[in-house]
Amino acid sequence: MNETLRRDVPAEVEHVLPEPVLELSAVRAGYGPIEVLHGIDLQLQPGSVLALLGPNGGGKTSTLKVCSGLLTPSAGELRVAGRVVNGVSAGQLAGVGVCSIPEGRGIFANLTVRENLWLAAGTRATLAQLEEVAYTRFPKLGERRKQLAGTMSGGEQQMLALSRALGTDPAVLLLDELSMGLAPLIVARMYESVAQLAAEGIAVLVAEQFARAVLPIADCAALILHGQVVRVGAPADVEDELSTHYLGG
Ligand SMILES: Nc1ncnc2c1ncn2[C@@H]1O[C@H](COP(=O)(O)OP(=O)(O)OP(=O)(O)O)[C@@H](O)[C@H]1O
Questions:
Q1: Which of 41, 79, 164, 171 meets the CB 3.0–4.6 Å disulfide criterion with 97?
Q2: 116: how many CB neighbours lie within 10 A of its CB?
């Protein structure tokens, strides 16, 4: 909830509102001298799915990079669990439970499923724990544990990417273009898994160019255009605005 809205909340109910687990306030960021995010306000509540929508180049990936610590705000604040974490590294943010699956899935194509999980193991989870999470949630991965990740289908690769993230017991999951290169049926299944994660308490921020893929499971949506959030609201309302005004119906 932004400050404008917060001022409208009566004092007697304000204390029962959940604290956002991740929050961007007036965040500006860019690449070298070029600013591409011009004052982003977003709030992500625990156990919810926030869909970040918009056309190519709008700033979705850059926003996720700010959230994961890969891009440092030049102004404004990134907060995790209420603490300002501007300039904290991606590794440190991962250590406190902010986990990111980048566009392209971030898996190692020439390593097996098991080796990919092994690389994700660390202080937060052992290989055995990661394998248990992965193979219980996605039995197909168990069958393919010795297969090279690059030879699996796109959907299976996405399962592996999700498993690597989940094994670290994240509080926040950042997903970029989960649907990329996947058949609609597989996309729907992947998003069912994402909805399940949110039901288990994980806060999920999903950047998606294809709104229809994510909106059925989103609790809230934000439309980002030219580096600015132009609308935040119920998924159906944001979808209407997206198609009517920006994608020509
Ligand atoms: N590494 C970079 N260096 C310079 N400019 C960049 C870089 N990455 C992105 N940009 C620019 O920042 C702007 C926002 O890009 P971003 O990738 O965040 O948008 P997006 O909404 O995720 O688009 P897409 O869906 O095409 O990935 C674009 O104008 C893009 O050209």
A1: 171
A2: 24
Would you say the CB of residue 225 lies under 6 angstroms from ligand 1?
Answer: no
Q: Kindly report the pTM of this predicted structure.
A: 0.86
Kindly state the percentage of the chain with pLDDT values over 70.
89
Look at strands 49-53 and 220-225 and give their pairing. Answer: parallel
> What mean pLDDT do residues 149-157 have?
91
C-beta of 31 in contact with ligand 1 (< 6 A): yes
Give all strands (DSSP E) within 3-60, no chain letters.
22-31, 34-44, 49-53
ipTM confidence score: 0.95
Residue 172 CB coordination number (10 Å)? 22
Question: Does 76 contact ligand 1 (Cβ within 6 A)?
Answer: no
